[in-house]
Design goal:
It comes from Streptomyces radicis. This is Tat pathway signal sequence domain protein. Keywords: Signal. The chain has about 900 residues and is an alpha+beta fold. Among the domains are: about 90 residues; about 100 residues. Helix content is about 25%, strand content about 25%. The protein has a 20-stranded antiparallel sheet that branches. Strands 4-3-7-1-28 form a 5-stranded antiparallel sheet. It has a 3-stranded antiparallel sheet with strand order 2-6-5. Strand 29 and strand 30 form a beta hairpin. Helix 1 packs across helix 15. The chain starts with 15 loop residues before the first helix and ends with a helix.
Length: about 900
């Protein structure tokens, strides 16, 4: 691969044009300069109401909560302080910082954090002003080998090296947990093929680097990076972030690992996070808790003294069941006291969620003895506890049943030290089998592979269906509790673990801030609007329900939806080539995020959130030569040989980043700044190429629409975040040089891309080459935002012309560009392009045309389409399901078209 330094780009003569533009845009200055140079001429802003996403007042928080708020251009300087006041008038300590900037240097997005230790209210008022100080602000200390965070309630010590990411978690002088470490194991053969000999080995995570990303006063963030090691082998790289909040006894953890093994011999059969928990008191004063479904809690003691042949006494029994210290055994019925050694102590407990629809709890006295079944249920909330009345550890995993096979395990609770393990992949399940799902079917040549594409829609190529470099992120929570919690408090902790409460600003404020382009709040003020709003709501609800009805769950699958439906089988085409998992095809992620922006609905946010976590990790490569590329839709998320930036698209992740300030998604967004380098190692058009692939960094075959739009969304986001300057340079250079082509984004001929500075070069004579997919992977949304941020007449004019001409007549296209654009598809999707041109040109005829294009429904849903679903029962199907005449491609593009037409030309409906 050719290596090109990004650090020297501004010094090159080729970047001169971009440099000139940079000098006219304050956002191009270094981040520190921007923060200090724009204080004048700011308008300020009225207080903003924020409320809990799920409504009401949550009983517990997962340590604390962090959320993002947008602001109109020119409202605040980045150094603006904010205060938070509850609806009862109580000042709440809040930590605030900027995460996005407008081109004039004013703050576009701020992030805010509050602790779970502070009193909670239903709503809060966020306003400029000095933040209230916590009575016990969080403090951080660093030394050569350690980082220590003191929340005022617990003290957590992190190691900078070795196998223990967390050295200890103390509450006062009491060690609640210690030796926090990552554990993993592999086997050399799958467990499903009855191999005579299967060899296994275990690995432990080893720390390579620790970074203190934030240090209070309300929130601290510690990032730990490393790999799992045994002997000479180091693999499964990880990034683990620990979040601690002032006054809280909880630790939120975001765990990411990347698979970098050989799928033919590296079958991961266990992946977890483990702590040692010192045990105090007698076994009958040691307690175990598991959260089930709903409000259910299984509460047991390591050595039970209820239900015995002899009764120790009612006070003793009640204390043990409640988790309190039992009275002095001398006060018990001595027929029990003298026989305590003969009562088995069950030191090991396990809750195993091996499917989305069933968990079982087992326990045993210890290693070498049989497990006995304690109970079971359907969907556990993913929280366990081990400890005593003098303190213990609650430990859990979010989306526990959705990301099966998972497990919460306690071992050694009858000894001096118990081990508490969150298994993100349970060792009780079959090992991960990430091998390709078929043998190639004889598709050895490009010609044969293209024939296969014609029948199953799968773009197969040997060696391309690899999981090497895909990732998964999991969220966990640990509470260092001063005593065994009551059943009610433990259930509340389980709820916070399962659905971490999140604060959010309202729909109207977010819209008024002018972020994310063309969208508007739900409006049912007329019959025509109401019909469209009903269609959007019914369509969205169908996908929310389908996730559960179709069981789109599992470690590698949860968060995605399917691409196309098979009406004959009453099933989504889960087993047919490119028709199976959607993998962001035609911007499903965008549609779901815009639905949340318009409605503010919690289930809309959670569906889009799960998709962001999935598609930004599993559907994208984070290591290897394809780092920065995503995989086209298929039976396995990494199966298809089309590796594309249109799937790894930053535009699909940036919503979640700005709404939550999530650092992991921020990592993914930053990775994509250099995704254009992948065009040096992989030719997207290789199966149609007539010449051998010999990439020239100064003349790469980067598509001017689908490819560039995806790359530019990464650069736009990096520019907004005040990151690497090359992002802004390439963003501006790309837009201006594309606009300079005779037919701009529709130009045909040999249009090439310069990796050094992001410029395009093409023929001086007009010709046309355009496809229906050109703008449906975020290009329209990108340009809507970009044209509000830059002042370049040619870029504005050429993009508006493109939007106007796509759905125009062949005669109009020939008159302006010299050629007809052909029989283009997805005309309903491009109605939003027509609407955009109508607004920019103030053209009522174009506005009317946009609505006509939407209603006609070409390659989408016409106005008489039935959006309702019908129930299908057995024996026609395995489980009762709702069935509707919908496909995900059409749903995503219809949703985006309706949202943007309503926002742009709603007054012409």
């Amino acid at each position: 691969m050719v290596h090109i330094s990004r650090r020297h780009v501004l010094a090159s003569a080729a970047a001169a044009g971009a440099t000139a533009l940079l000098t006219s845009h304050p956002a191009a200055a270094a981040p520190q300069e921007r923060r200090t140079a724009r204080a004048a001429d700011l308008s300020g802003h009225d207080p903003v109401t924020v409320r809990w996403l799920e409504g009401g007042v949550p009983a517990e928080l997962a340590a604390g909560t962090t959320w993002g708020v947008p602001w109109p251009r020119g409202a605040f300087a980045p150094e603006q302080e904010f205060s938070l006041v509850s609806d009862a008038g109580e000042a709440v300590p809040v930590q605030s910082w900027p995460i996005g900037w407008w081109p004039d240097g004013s703050v576009k997005w701020t992030a805010h954090a509050v602790s779970g230790a502070d009193p909670r209210a239903e709503t809060y008022r966020l306003e400029p002003g000095e933040a209230a100080r916590s009575e016990a602000p969080l403090t951080v200390g660093t030394s050569g080998r350690r980082v220590t965070v003191d929340t005022g309630v617990i003290t957590v010590t992190f190691r900078r090296d070795g196998e223990h990411l967390v050295e200890s978690v103390k509450r006062g002088e009491t060690v609640i947990a210690e030796n926090g470490r990552l554990v993993a194991s592999r086997q050399d053969k799958p467990g499903t093929e009855r191999a005579e000999v299967i060899r296994s080995e275990s690995f432990t995570g080893v720390v390579d680097e620790v970074t203190l990303e934030q240090e209070g006063p309300v929130r601290a963030v510690v990032k730990v990076e490393g790999k799992h090691r045994k002997g000479r082998r180091a693999w499964l790289p990880f990034t683990v972030r620990f979040y601690l909040y002032a006054g809280s006894d909880a630790i939120r953890v975001v765990h990411t690992f990347v698979y970098d093994g050989d799928p033919e011999r590296d079958f991961v059969n266990g992946l977890g996070v483990r702590f040692d928990v010192p045990m105090r008191g007698e076994p009958h004063d040691r307690h175990v808790r598991f959260a089930g479904q709903g409000e259910g809690v299984l509460a047991e003691a390591v050595r039970g003294i209820t239900g015995l042949r002899r009764d120790p006494g009612e006070a003793v029994r009640q204390a043990q069941v409640a988790g309190r210290a039992t009275p002095d055994p001398a006060t018990w019925d001595q027929r029990v006291t003298t026989r305590l050694p003969y009562i088995p102590a069950f030191g090991d407990h396990s809750l195993r969620q091996l499917t989305a629809n069933g968990f079982e709890i087992h326990k045993r006295t210890g290693r070498g003895h049989s497990w006995i079944r304690a109970d079971g249920g359907r969907r556990a909330r993913g929280l366990a506890y081990v400890g005593s009345p003098t303190g213990g550890l609650a430990f859990g995993m979010r989306n526990f049943w959705q990301l099966h096979p998972t497990e919460l395990e306690i071992t050694g609770a009858a000894t001096d030290t118990a081990q508490a393990t969150v298994w993100m992949w349970s060792p009780r399940a079959n090992a991960m089998d990430l091998r390709f799902y078929h043998d190639g079917l004889g598709q050895d040549t490009y010609e044969e592979q293209l024939e296969g594409l014609e029948i199953t829609y799968e773009d197969y190529e040997p060696g391309f269906g690899t999981p090497y470099g895909v990732a998964r992120t999991t969220e966990l929570t640990f509470w260092a509790l001063e005593a065994t919690p009551s059943a009610e408090r433990f259930s509340a902790l389980a709820d916070a673990n399962a659905t971490p409460p999140l604060l959010a600003s309202g729909v109207e404020h977010n819209h008024a801030a002018g972020v994310f382009g063309s969208w508007s709040p739900v409006d049912r003020s007329s019959a025509e609007r109401e019909e469209l709003e009903d269609n959007l709501a019914l369509m969205h609800r169908y996908y929310v329900d389908s996730v559960d009805q179709r069981h789109w769950y599992g470690f590698w699958d949860y968060g995605d939806v399917m691409h196309s439906y098979d009406g004959d089988r009453h099933a989504w085409r889960y087993d047919i080539g490119g028709y199976a998992w959607d993998n962001s095809e035609l911007s499903t992620d965008l549609w779901l995020w815009y639905h949340y922006l318009r409605t503010g609905e919690a289930d809309a946010f959670r569906l889009a959130e799960a998709m962001t976590r999935h598609t930004g990790e599993v559907d994208m490569y984070h290591l290897g030569e394809w780092k920065g590329l995503g995989t086209r839709h298929g039976v396995m998320h990494w199966a298809d040989s089309a590796k594309q930036v249109r799937i790894s698209n930053a535009g699909y992740r940036r919503f979640y980043y700005f709404l939550t300030a999530d650092e992991r998604v921020g990592d993914v967004l930053h990775e994509l700044v250099d995704a254009d380098r992948t065009f040096l190692v992989l030719d997207p058009g290789r199966k149609y190429a007539e010449e051998p692939f010999d990439p020239d960094p100064a003349a790469l075959p980067v598509g001017k629409s689908t490819d560039w739009g995806s790359l530019a969304l990464a650069w736009l986001t990096e520019w907004e975040r005040g990151g690497d300057e090359i992002a802004h340079t390439k963003l501006i250079n790309g837009a201006t040089t594309l606009a300079a082509l005779p037919n701009a984004w529709a130009q045909g001929g040999n249009v090439t891309y310069n990796l050094e500075d992001g410029r395009f070069t093409g023929p001086s004579e007009p010709s046309v080459s355009i496809g229906s997919l050109s703008s449906v992977f975020g290009l329209m949304e990108l340009m809507t935002e970009l044209l509000d941020l830059i002042d370049d007449e040619q870029v504005h004019a050429q993009w508006i012309r493109f939007c106007r001409l796509y759905n125009s007549t062949a005669a109009e296209q020939r008159e302006e560009t010299g050629s007809s654009w052909g029989s283009l598809n997805l005309r309903q999707a491009y109605s939003r392009a027509t609407a955009y041109a109508a607004v920019r040109l103030e053209d009522d005829a174009l506005a009317a045309r946009a609505w006509q294009e939407l209603r006609t429904g070409h390659a989408g849903y016409p106005e008489d389409h039935d959006f309702t679903a019908e129930r299908v029962e057995g024996p026609a199907v395995l489980n009762p399901v709702d069935e509707a005449s919908l496909s995900t491609n059409a749903s995503a593009q219809y949703g985006l078209a309706v949202v943007q037409c309503l926002a742009l030309v709603g007054d012409h409906i």
